[in-house]
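Dig into this one:

. . .
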Amino acid sequence: MSQKLSLWHILSIALSSCLISACDEETVAGVSTNFREDYIQLHECKQSAHPAADYIVTWLSPDALPVWEALKEGNLDQDFEEGAISIKAQYTDDTCSSLDSYTIMTKTSTASDAAHGGWRWDYANQDFECINCDAGASCAGCHSGCTSGPTLFCTTP
């Protein structure tokens, strides 16, 4: 019996690894781990209402900069184009030196994903490995309260 249980355990781990890898290649691997150099940092370390992080630093992909600049100027009517990416690095301390995880938001087609505001949310560990891929329902629930500015985007200038 314990051999079957052990074999089942091994198969479960292998299957989980395959699923994580497939997701990782599909989403997180599409984002450079050098994003801190390639993306625009929106703010310094700040306290967050995020349920999985006490403190955050947020970055945007360069193609999303025009919407961010418009938002800083008070233009709340623009939305991010498909393919725009926001990365929220989540920390456990107020100096943002103890990294816990990442949330990656990728703008998709609003028409095909209206329930999530046209965003795909992926949650990754410190090594940028996806641990909850396409977590849209749980993320969109909280983000639905962000009604000023781009659709379901809570970060403000």
In short: The radius of gyration is 17 Å. The beta strands are 40-41, 46-47, 55-60, 85-91, 99-107, 119-124, 130-132.
